[in-house]
Amino acid sequence: MTTATRILTVDDSPSMRALLNHALTSQGFDVSQAEDGIAALDWLALNEVDVVITDINMPRLDGFGLIEQLREGSRHRDRPILVLTTESSEEKKARARAAGATGWIVKPFDPAKLVAAVRRVSH
Amino acid sequence: MNAEEIQAIFFAECEESLAAAEQGLAACKEGTQDADTVNAVFRGVHSIKGGAGAFGFIALQAYTHTFETLLSDVRDGTVPITDPLIDLMLRALDTLSDHVNAARGFGETPDDAVLQAEMTASMAANAHGGGGSESGAAAAPALAAEIEVQHGSDDDDEFGVDFDTMLDDITGSIAAPGGSNDSSDESGGATGKPWQLKVRPHAGAMQNGSEPLLMLREVLELGGTCLQCDVSQVPPLDTLEPCTGYLGWTFALPGDVTEDAARDIFDFVGDDCTLAIGEDAAMPAMRMPAPRAPAAKAAPSPSPATNATPAPAAPAPVAAVQAAVKAEPATPAPAQPEAEQARGGPPAPPAQSQSIRIELGKLDKLIDAVGELVIAQAMMAQRLTGDGLAVTEELTLLESLTRDIQESAMSIRAQPIGSVFSRVPRIMRELSASTGKHVRLEVSGESTELDKTVIERLGEPLTHLIRNAVDHGIEPPQERIDAGKSAEGTLTLSAEHKSGRILIRIGDDGKGIDRERVLAKAIEKGLVAPDAVMSKEEIDQLIFAPGFSTAASITNVSGRGVGMDVVRQNVKDLGGRITIESEQGKGTTFTLTLPLTLAISDGMVVNVGDQTLVVPLANVVESLRPTATEVQGLGAHRAMINVRGRFIPVLPLYQAVGAIGAVERADLGVLIVVETEGAGRAALLVDAICDQRQVVIKSLDTHYRAVEGVAGATILGDGRVALIVDVDGLVARSLSDHMLAEAA
What we know:
Oligomer: heterodimer
Number of strands of chain B: 22
Distance between the termini of chain B: 68 Å
Helix content of chain A: 40-55%
Number of domains of chain A: 1
Strand content of chain A: 15-25%
């Protein structure tokens, strides 16, 4: 791995963004952050990324909507997208999968598990 | 960024979330109960829960979980919005705020057992099966037990993950295909004997951005060896669908690798990848990509299979069951409200204003530097003017730019006063509960902005004034009805900009100040002479005297009369003033007049004899050069000036500051007419006005000590220090001095 894996985290909570940033940058990932689905789409329109980690419940555009829009476009159709959220109901998981999520991680997250999950879908 | 800093962000966020939830609930109470409003409340609580879990605030997390579940039911329409429910949620929010404070280290963790029980009850009362499972977070009194319960209800513990070491729930148990929640915990242990794993990624495993190859590599990393790749399903090239999973792999895994460790790898893709365990287990069947029709459901519970896992010699009889194609359809569940919203349907709640967080210290440094810039610019302007270059175009440009920068810098520190006002509803609820009085709150001007420091220090005096208004001002319902008023009292809270200052009014429609009683009390306490003749305003001011309390019975609300003098001091410390208007039977209004900022203000630079002083522009009404006839003497030391039919006392500034060699006759100098808060208008006599400019206020208190009549000091363009006149204080003092002199 010559260049760092680029990750975009999408979460409306500043503390969660700070935690993610800390957990991922300390492991050598190249982390960018967006605070909701719209901001993520704007960012992704201009930047390249290897993995997207998104929250579900966010203002403006939520995680489901973000995943659906990314899967509809051609550029990020095959991008690994991890859902990171406190919601753990089967219904929500099914919905995330239907929208096109690659994987599901429940908050609060264990940094090591998060990193493992990212490695599992990237490289 | 360290953990503490991140935690600080979390608490700041909690404040915002609480405020947003409070706002949403207030809107609900007023009848706005649409999905967006409810979702805003939900999101506030939800985000606190998320952070609470991440930072290990167990009690906070447990409590928010119940609250969130209730809100989720409300959002989904399972629990109808009723007035009692809104009241319950408001109380729940108050307790949540206490929980947040406790997590922060302020105060005790609140006892939430009763509230939890109430919330659970309101969910149970409306549960139609589905909602019931999540409301399992019953009113468990012990928090630890509570977490157990809610945890279980979350379907999170399929692998027996310890909650305290953070949840690791990655979707889709393969061991329990139907999502069934049986406890297969003991299956996860290492057996010590080598075992076999068969993997069949389906088409779906390659959609959604997954790459099965990476997972297979992970199996290798675990110590697995690929024994065989099943290529029997690969079709002729011309019919091959690149995204279909034609291949199946068989791995041999060493005995020290647990089954769970292997399953963890594939958890991610859920039913897009089928596993079989055991040498004799059949390679899972291939599944074609589309249509994703449900196949035969794996009938028996798979847990026996996992128990039979290990020994290669002993055939695992039920292993084949696991190989059976799973039935769980991948189609989304019936759209929930949130689902509709996600599909780019109705626009989400109004966009939050985008913001970044800045350390306050950095900001203050900027403000300080801007202050110095303002001074430097003024000094340069003065130097150039002295050299006859006053009309230099660049100088004008620089001046306007400096002003722009300064305004921007100040506006960064400015915050809407709404952040203080938003705490008021809670205070009101508590007051209503403890006093039995019904009070309606009317708030206006929440968006009025003022300096952060002012805002921060405003909370305490404001709270006290509100408590005071409800406790002493507004009458009990029956008394109000007898007085011909509505049973419900009204408290109005407003903020507005007025001539460079902020006016905050706290008004009630209660009984007004009982001046007779106030005076009697003051005489009794020895605060005034028994034969004192006092104006209404002066009597009103007595309530600010230290140690004054008129409440017939001391209540636990307004305390013991130590408040109002502290309130006045707090406001004074902010460079503000407090005034009272009260009418018996009609109500009382307290008006706080506060400066916009504590750092910079516009001032008029004046000469008085050998001194240069600055008069804050906020006080200045006009300036004039009177003729001798316009000034009329009143006794030996007083003079009045007739300004358009209105007589205004003339106040020679040189007397007040002890300047030497100043102009002593009003018709030879300049009069600056100033407006004061308490003492009306006055005309300050000065020698000349030299300039009007922005001054950076440097506190005298911090560098020297507080001086009566002086608001602070500043550095002028030529580098000299000038005192800033505290017009209100100076005028009030001078006039009362005159009165004393006259009385003597």
